[in-house]
Amino acid sequence: MTYTVYDDTITLKLIQEACNVLGVSMEVILKLFGEYFFKFCKMSGYDRMLRTLGGNLMEFIENLDALHSYLALSYQEMNAPSFRVEKGADGKMLLHYYSDRSGLCHIVPGIIEAVAKDFFDSDVTMEILDMNKEEERTGKKEHVVFLIVQKSHRQMRKAKANNSQASQDIQRDQEALEAAFLRMKEKYLRISVGSVKRPRWEILRSIVLFGKGHLVNTFVPVYPKRLWIEEKTFCNAFPFHIVFDEALRVKQAGVNIQKYVPGLQTCKIGLDEYFSIIHPQVTFNIFSICKFINSQFVLKARREMMPEAWKSQPTLKLRGQMIWMDSIQCMMYMCSPKLRSLEELEERKMHLSDIAPHDTTRDLILLNQQRLAEIELSNQLERKKEELRILSKHLAIEKKKTETLLYAMLPEHVANQLKEGKKVAAGEFKTCTILFSDVVTFTNICAACEPIQIVNMLNSMYSKFDRLTNVHDVYKVETIGDAYMVVGGVPVPTGSHAQRVANFALGMRISAREVMNPITGEPIQIRVGIHTGPVLAGVVGDKMPRYCLFGDTVNTASRMESHGLPNKVHLSPTTYKALENQGFEIIERGEIEVKGKGKMTTYFLVQNLNASEDEIMGRPQTLLHHNEASAQGKQDSKTIVVMSYADNRKLLPKSNTADDPEALAPGGRVVTEQEPTEAADGLRSSSPTEAHPFLSDTLTSGFCTLL
Q1: CA atoms within 13 A on the CB side of 661
Q2: By C-alpha distance, which of 208, 507, 496, 254 is closest to 359?
Q3: Of 538, 561, 549, whose CA–CA distance to 483 is shortest?
Q4: pLDDT tens, residue by residue, 236-262
Q5: Dihedrals φ, ψ of 352, to 5°?
Q6: 354 and 428: one domain?
Q7: How far apart are CA 528 and CA 583, in angstroms?
Q8: End residue of a domain, out of 312, 337, 358
Q9: DSSP-assigned letters across all residues of 390-424
Q10: For the Guanylate cyclase domain, which residue ranges apply (predicted)?
Q11: Residue span of the structural domain in which 13 resides
Q12: Structure pTM?
């Protein structure tokens, strides 16, 4: 997360894992990270700021501490390292690296080499000369000394290649310089009054010399013989400054430092008694200060030296530059309060008026206040982004549940068309197979049992039947009371619709053995009727749309069920013809009178000669053992095996059993954990179970009554 501080142990763990994956050393990983970090800083908008730190590599390194100090205004928890560079012979440099964070020093060569190549067009090599732990007053510091060697300068080679162009530029500069000198001379002679002594003209002439380059290159400053500012004015103009000698005795202090650090200018008071050095972390003596004279110094007031009433508020921090005054052997510390925001200004009981108008600290505080507001806004945006990601994840889960429920009510392709706002056109199916089933003596059972017992019995039975719809890839149309209706060949046509429904009916009969009659405690008995013929299918209703089947085939299938016998699968003549020579054992019932149809020769389906009971039930045979046979007979397996047909569109993956109580959706529809939403090309829709019972076993279904 941006603007978030992570512990170094996390960084080191990541580096160690990278080493294990890539098979390289930690030093290589850190150096590569340093190169990338430089590119990352450029991409993050710090390119121009980094380029203006210095005109060469040495100046760039010398100003790194100042850059870190500025960035620390916004990034309050930043723990930046400190750099000090010494110039050696033959262009070599000694880079001193100080850090509280051990183990990360190998990042430095990656950064410095990338900076040298990108900004200064030079190749450098770095090696570690010394590495030790220094015990300073402020704590342990890792001190690493790098030797920097500049190997080549491509910029010089480019300059030689463009030598002719450079010589022309120099000539034009000299001509412009000569013309400027003549204009200055004429102006000087024109404004002169009276006699002009030669020495004054010589002074002017010494400023501009022919053929010596630009004016700035020959500039020589002129200092007054005495300082034209009184002591009181100086201390007011620079309210935050301290002058101290080699023994750290305070000689002079600005008025506001005296105001916020009382007793500082007492006779023979040592600066180290009132302040400690925060940065650079060195011993507080004149030798260490001179050694880091080019660094930015941060001093912190000692809390124990403050008045008792001030000890509860944050201590004052000063940030500025040390200037050595050789003539009086004293050091002047030109500084400003180190403040990050207006809140810190208030905490220290200070005001903007306490800071000198010429001091840029005023602008830094106001600008950084805006920067901190932007950082806080960015943090809020990232937090909101994370919250939205979590909400989106939860929304996807809820959407999955909604789609599962929707696909349980309608075929998937039909539901998708309705979601898109399209109208679903009714379809004509020239041939399909419809099955109806009901429970024998269901009315008597309802009269003698509690409602919850009826619900539990139906739920157990329908759960087992629902599981079988996945095994044989048939579509569950609806349930009304104890009546269960499925169809094969709708809504997706298939040539083996009769075989699928027949195997489903045999599976229903097997499953019914495991559902107990709450009155007698014996297995319930069901009647099953099957008929094959043409139907019309379409979606009806707006509030609770249903995918319904219409036609005489529905009515005839219902008649097969109502005229059937307990534990028998009753077949119509058309279904018998569809199943003939398909490996099923079928016996003729004979000619019977069918209400509304007259006399019909019907049949009973006995068994599938080519499929075992386990195959019909969708149980994995490889998992069945002899010692599990009895247990397997009492409960369904928790794995569904799709039965193979010649025209199978695709095999469903294994899923949890339908009788898992935790997998039951509202209305008795089973949603297995591993069951894919797109299984069986959308053949997993159903209507929720309704709890009201039929008034009579011989009564036709609501569908048939409507037709």
Answers
A1: 2
A2: 254
A3: 561
A4: 999 999 999 999 999 999 999 998 888
A5: -60, -30
A6: no
A7: 20
A8: 358
A9: HHHHHHHHHHHHHHHHHHHHS-HHHHHHHHTTPPP
A10: 433-561
A11: 8-153
A12: 0.45
Tell me which amino acid residue 104 is: L
The torsion angles phi and psi of 574, rounded to 5 degrees, stand at: -65, -35
pLDDT in tens, 409-454: 777 777 887 777 777 777 888 999 999 999 998 988 888 888 899 9
Alpha-helix runs per DSSP H in 478-526: 497-512
460 with 546, same domain? yes
Residues 471, 574: one domain? yes
Is residue 406, in this structure, part of any structural domain at all?
no
Q: Counting runs of H as helices and runs of E as strands, what totals does the chain give?
A: 24, 18
| Residues with Cβ within 8 Å of residue 404, at least 6 apart in sequence | 665, 671, 677
Question: What is the chain's length?
Answer: 707
> pLDDT tens digits, residue range 484-528?
999 999 888 888 999 999 999 999 999 999 999 888 888 999 999
Q: Who's near 599: CB < 8 A, 6+ residues apart?
A: 591, 592, 593
* Residue 501, domain CATH: 3.30.70.1230
Distance CA 698, CA 442 (A): 11
Tokens representing 189 are 């002679």
Instruction: Assess if residue 417 is contained within a domain.
Output: no
Q: What CATH number has the domain bearing residue 91?
A: 3.90.1520.10
Q: Are residues 605 and 475 in the same domain?
A: yes
Longest dimension (CA), the chain: 150
Burial class of residue 554 in the structure, from the number of CB atoms within 10 Å of its CB (0-12 exposed, 13-18 middle, 19+ buried): buried
